[in-house]
Amino acid sequence: LKMSRFWFRLPLHLFMAACFCHPMKVSTTSSQQSFKTNLFNFYHSLILADGKETTIHLLKDIPKRYYFVLEEGRALAPFTVTVTPCDVPIEWSILVHKASASYLGKATRGDHDTQEIAKSQKAASMVSTIFNYKGNSIETYMGMSSHSSLYILEFLSTERDTHITVYLTTDTTSENLYPELPMDPRIDVIGIGHTTVTLTWKHSPSVSQHRENIQYCLLVNEKHNYKSLCAAETAIRSSGMKLPPALALSLSPYLLEPQQVMILSKSELSIINKVSSGEVRQICMGTKNTYTVPSLSPNTQYYFDVFVVNLLTNASAAYTGTFARTLEEPEPKVTELKDGKVIQVVLDGKKNKYYNLQYQSRYKKIQFIFQLCHGQVRVHITKNGKTVASENISGLRYFSLKGKLLDTYLVQLRSAEESNSSVKVQVSPHFHKPLFPLLPESLKIKSFSKLRSCNSVTIAWLGTQEESKYCVYKKRIEEDQVWMDLQNLDRCSGPETRHKSEKVLCKYFYDINLQRAVTTETINGLDAGTLYLFDVYLFGPSGIPVRYHSKVVKTRKKC
């Protein structure tokens, strides 16, 4: 065996002491071990760094030993050891070797005869276990050390290969690596909704001392609580994905995996991890100690863990986790549809909820009619629980369905965009008495650039084989209002909402040959270089109008 320079610098009595320490769960006594075996074991133990967090990988059923000694010249000093299991429960112990004065004297005089030293060491030294623990919680041991003692830490995992972190410090006057927890480290649930849970916790003392370097991070999942941040990260990795090095410092989107979604809003960082067991959500919210978790599923149990994180060292301390079940979604309100009756529904795009309409048919054939008034609407129709239609609608849409007497139809409507949407709905068994007029192939209005002048424009639109009434309206608009006016158009509103001065004309026309069912109109008396919004309304037998798609045209500036 080759010894590094470091081994030669160790005091000989400490070197000899390490050779005869009992390893964890080894049945043979020290008297049965040879000096060479102890020497080999010593070289396979490692020095534990003072003042730094050390990550240690453990193989199943194979103990691993680390040791530390104080600097020479220090008589008594406090020390702390903090061990954080990152997965399964582990066993760990602290053993201390104390040598007698006579043995230390031999080492100091330079009597380095191997057999003599071994015999003297065996008689005058003692190895004892001063602490042991088994579990997966973060555990800290505080003790006093002397220069004549060598401490050995032994770790063992009996379930599977795992890793842990160990932090040793002998300088208790300097700032602690880990943020402090308050006297009461519990998380309180102060509000529960159908899709939200509001939490609060007491501030860490570290926040008042080092606010700019401390932040709180919240972990939300549906499986169980985690006792440390590294345990949570290990669980996410074991689900088949790679996690950024640490929750608090995962601020770059370039660190994210395809299964992750990062959301930055109002000085909060949210990372959503899509794992096989569900969703693991991580939110870092600075130093706020009250937070409402949004977008949860109703009637679902969630587990909440809060970690206070030191941004400089990336070390963290865990509050006592809690859990809560969101409220059950109330039964959705259902509005009954009646034959021939038209209802208009306004849908909230932010809530993204379905509006439910129910209809029990007294006929074998029925027709649902939808007229989109504003926004975008998703329509889902079921008959006796089975889907018969599902699509986004635009303009006017008919669904003709066949079934049996007393079939139950459920119509579900929701906004297909974040802004509000509205739609008119009618169900009727009377195909021969349509509510809306017969529609052309397209509801677009066309303008002719070559026929534009400084004070007139020419527009055209398609008609049908049925004689109908068409009314044209115009409205002067500013260039910066075009987008807003088009967005706010209510396509279900009729001419009754327009000012009388906006009316241009009304006319009747039709053509049996659909190829020739086109009409044009030249609108005069316009201002040069001005934008106008043109609308055409089509009236059917029932008198309910259908609005063509609005057209914006600008007159020529110079002629």
TrEMBL record:
Pfam families referenced in this protein's UniProt entry, alphabetically: NDNF (PF10179), NDNF_C (PF19433), NDNF_N (PF24354)
Entry-linked SUPFAM superfamilies: Fibronectin type III (SSF49265)
Keywords for this protein: Glycoprotein, Neurogenesis, Repeat, Secreted, Signal
Gene: Ndnf_1
Primary localization class, coarse: secreted
Highest taxon listed in the record's lineage: Eukaryota
Segment forming the signal sequence: 1-28
GO cellular component, one term: extracellular region
Keyword Signal (UniProt): yes
Protein role: Secretory protein that plays a role in various cellular processes. Acts as a chemorepellent acting on gonadotropin-releasing hormone (GnRH) expressing neurons regulating their migration to the hypothalamus. Also promotes neuron migration, growth and survival as well as neurite outgrowth and is involved in the development of the olfactory system. May also act through the regulation of growth factors activity and downstream signaling. Also regulates extracellular matrix assembly and cell adhesiveness.
Fibronectin type-III domain sequence ranges: 179-316, 437-545
UniProt-annotated location(s): Secreted
GO molecular function, one term: heparin binding
Gene Ontology process terms (BP): nervous system development
Protein name, entry field: Protein NDNF
